[in-house]
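Recall the central idea of this unit: under ordinary conditions, the amino acid sequence of a chain determines the structure it adopts. In this exercise we apply that idea directly, starting from the sequence alone.
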Amino acid sequence: MEHYLYHILQETAPYLVLLFMFIFGYTFQKVNIPSIIAFMIVGFLAKPLVAPEKIEHFEIFKHAGIILLFFFIGLEYSFERLRTMLGAWKTGSIDFIFNFIPPFIIAYIFGFNLINALILASVFYPSSTSIIAKLLMDYKRIASPEAEMLIGILIFEDLIAILLLTIIIPLKEAGSIEFTTIPVSLIKLGVSFFVFWFIYKYLVPKVNGWLDRVSEEDIFIFFTIGLVLSVGTVFHSLGISEALGAFLLGVIVPETKVLENIEKQLSDLKELSMGLFFFFFAYETQLSRPENLVLLTLLIVLGVILKIVSTYLAGYVFGLKKKSRLRASLSFVPRGEFSVIITSFEPALKSTAIPFIFSTAVIGSVLFAVAPRVADIIYPPKKRKKRKPIKRPKKGYLKRSQAFSEHPPSLRSSRPETPPQR
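Accordingly, the structure predicted from this sequence is:
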């Protein structure tokens, strides 16, 4: 009997995983903790309980998760909008200098080779787009003065993250930093942008009408998924980041009915794929004590402090008032999906990167929640001056003033009226 129950439990385990991902995710969201933390916790808990062969049919979702995420990021842009995003280079550069260069130097000092130092700095650098965007909406701060700047920096970080992936993947495959690796990666990046720009400019307009018509069909989802995953796989085979291919494919989707239909059809699949990606990330991780607790503590402390300082300075450059700058700086700490994705390329860094991501995501979410209150304490709103009560006129005053106003103008002044000149 026990063997029979164990067999049933093992057979249903993959689907129970999905139920627990919902339960944990829903519970965490209620207390404003990011759902990706919940999915990773389920992955850690499932590791000793669920056999790998029982969930191997979910592997396709793990592979599709990153590609679909970057495809959806690409849907938010066009080549014209990418050009206008260059306006965020000042605030974005401050964020990059403060949050990429120091961790790279620290990692190298602590004995990491150049490739792993680059990966660790790339984990440290980007804030979580999904966490911050959701918190802005949950706390009704999407219309606040600092929201525009934060979103601009997040977009800048998205583009830099894609560039970093384009460099990291060939470096990992080569196993060492060669003189030609980075220039070749940048050339591939430039050629990719040019090819997709050419398609966007000259080929997409010719098939716009057909895409609008066929996107209304229920079976259009097969075309979209097949195309997105194929492009991502081709890019990976060419030694280019599959995320870049998916992103550029999203960029060339015309802003017509087809865009709306793709988002409607694929949105739920993207959420499922990303959730399972984070689950597998934790499930495949060997839990171990961090090799260097001093380094981990230093990274967590600097991860909070440097984001606060850099965002405050970016707010100054952007032109925000002091109170808005402080709110913004306390709202930009969480790390999330990009840090997890970059960590997945170097399993040896997981023992350091995972506690760092968990800590900054939770600390950052708490700081986001208290940011308005802290800003009000440090920069209290100015009290409005009480208006003096209006004195009521004495009796008879109103009648006298009315009588005075009824006189002709010459009687309102002691000066005689100047006779008109002829």
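Residues 62-378 form a domain with the Na+/H+ antiporter like fold fold (CATH 1.20.1530).
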